[in-house]
Amino acid sequence: MLLDTSPASRFPLSLTSDDKSLIGKNARRMMMHLSIPIGDDLQQTLSLFEKIEARRGGLDMLGSSDASFRCLVESFPHILSLPLDTHLKPMMELLESIGIPKERMHAIFLLFPPILLCDSKDIERKVLSLKKFVAVDEDFGKIIQKYPWILSTSIQDNYKKIVSLCDMEKVAKASIDKAIRNWPHILGCSTSKLKLMFEQFGVLCVKHKKLGQVIAKSPQLLLRKPEDFLQVVSFLKDLGFDQETVGKILVRCPEIFAMSIEKTLRVKVEFLTSIGVSEDHLPRIIKKYPEFLVSDINKALLPRMEYLMEVGLSKREIVFMVRRFSPLLGYSVNEVLRPKYEFLVNIMEKPVKEVVDYPRYFSYSLEKKIKPRFWVLKGRNVECSLKDMLGKNDEEFATKFMDAGGMLVSSSPSQP
I need a surface site. Which of 137, 250, 311, 385 has the fewest CB within 10 A? Predict the structure, then answer.
């Protein structure tokens, strides 16, 4: 039985406009980050992409069956003679068995058409080979959806080279496997390019275990150009950080180094200065909470400031709190700020102004520390500042307020 040659029968699965857009975007991304010698399967795929890119609409039209079908057949004419029952159905059943939904197979076929010509047993062999070396398990279907080229022999061979390089750099294999699960496009990157980035990290004393942490947390950073990475380093140094501190920021929040300076990093710095933070205080604020530089101003930072102003704090007081404890900017209104504020004013009966002097109050667990210690103090009719109540370790708190050697952790019996 031969397949119908119409586009509708060739790609029977419907795609939303978002799906079509993502297919084109992923095709460009895979091409952009490919820097290894490739075999015929990938070479034919690139030729197909180039044909479509040359047409009106470019690769954004790759997800449209009508627009891409002619180019597909020209590049892979043998797909017209593939038997449905003995070839395509077994292959689709295999893909579904490894975690790829039927509605996503369309995208995989468009992004890596040679898979249509492969025998299902050959695909199964490649899958088993990857599972043997890469700790992917149940994530494998998701990886193929992100990066169908992982089924190419060229990409699989490059994985072994990447693992060898990481072994030389004393990076745990678990770190690189996690990076691949999150950002499999690094599999198309040559080890020579990866080594250049490793060297840049090394200059900042980010090596071995720390390097593994960076790779696992922000694998897309490996695909940056060294000059773009160095621009972010220079940006941070211009703010007042020394090289050692820049390295520490890289380990804690590597996402910063994958961001645009003009569109993201500088905008966040300007936000701080716009609310009244002086340039002298910027290094301390960012050092204590570098995640601020990748936070969304409209969805995260402004709502948190607006809530604090709603409960009675002035902008000047909030800026003072941020200067003293910048992680304050990272706390969710509904999950952290509101419940702790309500306990402060409704149960503890303290004025909200007390958090101005001790903004770290919001960092403590409400259930595990704030409530237990409050009920201990209330049971002894003791009044003290938030800092005295929470800033001591368990032994110090017990010695000062309980005349005992242990910390009482249970809530008051009167509590529901």
Answer: 137
Count, residues in the chain: 416
Average pLDDT over residues 327-335: 95
Q: Which of 51-65, 272-286, 303-317 has the lowest mean pLDDT?
A: 51-65
* Tokens describing residue 140: 């494998």
Q: Which amino acid is at 139?
A: D
Burial 69-91 (b: 16+ CB within 10 A, else e): bebbbebbeebeebeeeebbeeb
- As given in the structure block, the two tokens for residue 95 are 């893909």
Average pLDDT score over residue span 33-55? 92
Q: Find all residues with CB under 8 Å of 10, minimum gap 6, and list them.
A: 3, 4, 65, 69, 72, 79
Q: What pLDDT sits at residue 353? A: 94
Residue 6 pLDDT exceeds 90? no
The DSSP code for 83 is B
CA distance 371 to 79: 67
Neighbours of 163 (CB within 10 A): 18
- Alpha-carbon Rg for the chain, nearest whole angstrom, is 28
Query: Which two structure tokens, joined as six digits, stand for 250?
Result: 């890289």
Q: Range with the lowest mean pLDDT among 133-142, 157-166, 169-178?
A: 133-142
Interior/surface letters 225-253, b for 16+ CB within 10 angstroms, e for the rest? eeeebeebbebbeeeebeeebbbbbbbbb
Angle at 378 between CA 374 and CA 383, to 5 degrees: 85
Can you tell me which residue has the tokens 């180019």? Answer: 71
Residue with structure tokens 């501190």?
245
| Residues ≥6 apart with Cβ < 8 Å to 386 | 350, 354, 355, 357, 358, 361
| CA 185, 189, 194, 200 torsion-angle sign | negative
- Note the pLDDT of residue 403: 64
CA neighbours within 13 Å on the CB side: how many for 407?
A: 16
Asked if residue 266 has pLDDT above 50, the reply is: yes
pLDDT value, residue 7: 40
d(CA 337, CA 332): 6
> What pLDDT is recorded for position 67?
67
Q: Which has the closest alpha carbon to 140: 88, 80, 180?
A: 180
